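[09:14] KT: can someone run the structure on this one? pasting the chain below
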Amino acid sequence: MSAIPYVAFTLERHQIETLGERLLAEARLAGEALPWTAGAELDAACARLAADLGVRLTVIAADGRVLGESTRSSESLENHADRPEVRAALATGQGRAVRQSGTIGVRLLYTAWRQTRGEGVRVVRTALPLTAVAKNVAHLRRLLVGGLLAAMLLGLATSLVLSRRLLRRIQRLVAFARAVAGGAPAPYLAPERRDDLGVLEAQLADMAREVAATIAALRVERERLEAILSGMVEGVLVTDLVGRVALMNERARELLALPAGHDGAGRPLVEVARQPQVSETLRALAAGSAVISRDLTLDGAERTTLQVNGARLCGPDGQPFGYVLVLHDVSELRRLEVIRRDFVANVSHELRTPLTAMKGYAETLLGPAGDDRETRRRFLSVIDRHSERLGRLIDDLLTLSDLELGRSPLRLGMVAVAPAVEDVLQILSDPAARGGVELGARIDPATPALEADADRFRQVLINLVDNAIKYTSGGGRVFVRATAVRGAEHEGMVEIAVEDTGVGIPAQDLPRLTERFFRVDKGRSRALGGTGLGLAIVKHIVQAHGGELGITSAVGRGTTVRVLWPAAAPSRRAGEVGG
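[09:31] RB: done, structure tokens below
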């Protein structure tokens, strides 16, 4: 729109110049045709010629007097010497001016031509109203404004159509990018046109396919890593350099006694684990240790011993970006190490006691005391008793070793419970009578036969009943019960219980009763002639038959040892039962 005034002004100036050239030519023609007179005669000639040319004609003397005028009497007109076009014509031969006419009151274009004839000089001036020029300019302005408005409307409509099409394509690209960023499958995208936006659409489609392939590969790797971590028996815990948890597998949560599903991601390890010893391991790594290994004992319902192996995680540039801790539960291993050390110490002590006694009495017999028959007899009796104890100890150790290593094959057969119990009670009736202990049994008639090695089964009963007799004071009672187990959990099993009214066992010692050489009252056990291996042998015999062993006791109220033993298959009970 700002160009319209400039175009109108330029057009008006061009038309004025063109019209001025025409008027100047007509002034020359008029000068040749007009007589060199003045007054009414020249006014009439100017009027006729002006009517033919369609212009206003004025003849002006060199001093500015009007000699002739086509529109009115020249005598009534004022001096024109000060008119710019007249001055220019007198000075240069021709002049031009555009101004408001004082004579007729309209805006005119004046052109003046200096005409000479001998000594005479006059100026012939033509004038034409600019109303036609103004009309042409106004008409052109209307055309320009109309054309410009039409062009603007057409451009607006075109741009609206194109912008809507472009907006639709951009919105499709935005929706596509949002879907890809949200992890959803990328929708179909193909370039609509071969323009710059089409190139972008094609590149985004290619990028989406590459991103989808990368995400799929990462998902596979993540699932593989999670499967590996979840299948590990060790706990794995990864933190960043400031101790915030980045990764933790299920086993680590179990070892640190964390709730299920609590991954602790992004939280400080000291808040997640609540075990200062674990945080101290991280501080040791941060202090400069590249790899560290230590045992940590965690307090809780059960004291757990963890072997923690820690290391720094370093990037390709060698700079650390985190730490990894591998937690391994070594509680059972440490417990077995303690048992092994106790076993070595106990077996050494158990062997040293009879050997020392035997060596002492033998050395005594080699001296003068050996010459006395009664003394020699008494010392030899002691040596024989200790050698017998040493033999029992070695026999029990060999038996236990054979059971643990599976070198003692089981001769399985059908064993009736009642006859076996009666035999054992008969064998141990004398020791029970000497201790003033009453023996008894109640065998359910419906108790099925056992699938067992008869000798090993009797060995179990002898060990259990013998122990019960030894730890029951005079006037006490040892009772053997046997019945078929009812219930889906232990279907097809027979329960054999040996109950006594003895001194009982403290609750803290119950878990260790089946350990080798473990004695609740060491002095009493040795005085009774036990080796400390009886219950260990019983446990291994029962386990070798696929059974279970359980012990309950209360101090001063007695002890009950329960053995769950597999019953023989019904198809075999029709045959002869071993006894």
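[09:33] KT: thanks! Confidence is low (pLDDT under 50) at residues 523-527.
[09:34] RB: yep, looked fine to me
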